[in-house]
């Protein structure tokens, strides 16, 4: 049986924590910064967690856990 492949698109967008939860960066932080307040930009720097409802779907893209 060959090795299973990690979904590379998902590996670039998500990381798995040590406990198996899925972490993702906030959207909207790559361009058009002038119109956004400094408070908003500061909050966009932080990573968020994927919603519980979507977590199982994303974890399925990582057959061996951490990418």
Topology:
Elements lengths: L7 H6 L1 E2 L5 E4 L12 H7 L2 E3 L2 H8 L8
Antiparallel strand pairs: 1-2, 2-3
What do these coordinates show?
The protein is of the alpha+beta class. The protein has a domain of 44 residues. Helix content is 31%, strand content 13%. It is built from 3 helices and 3 strands, in the order αββαβα. The chain has a 3-stranded antiparallel β-sheet with strand order 1-2-3. A hairpin with a 5-residue loop joins strand 1 and strand 2. The longest helix has 8 residues. The protein is elongated. It starts with 7 loop residues before the first helix and ends in an 8-residue tail after the last helix. The model has no long low-confidence stretch (mean pLDDT 92).
Please name the defining characteristics of this protein.
67 residues, 13% strand, alpha+beta, three-stranded antiparallel beta sheet
Contiguous helical run count: 3
Question: What fraction of the residues are assigned to beta strands by DSSP?
Answer: 5-15%
Ends distance? 20 Å
Overall pLDDT level: 92
């Amino acid at each position: 049986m060959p090795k299973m492949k990690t979904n590379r698109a998902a590996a670039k967008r998500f990381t798995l924590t040590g406990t198996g939860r899925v972490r993702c960066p906030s959207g909207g932080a790559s361009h058009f910064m002038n119109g956004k307040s400094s408070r908003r930009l500061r909050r966009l720097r932080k990573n968020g967690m994927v919603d519980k409802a979507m977590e199982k779907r994303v974890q399925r893209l990582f057959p061996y856990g951490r990418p």
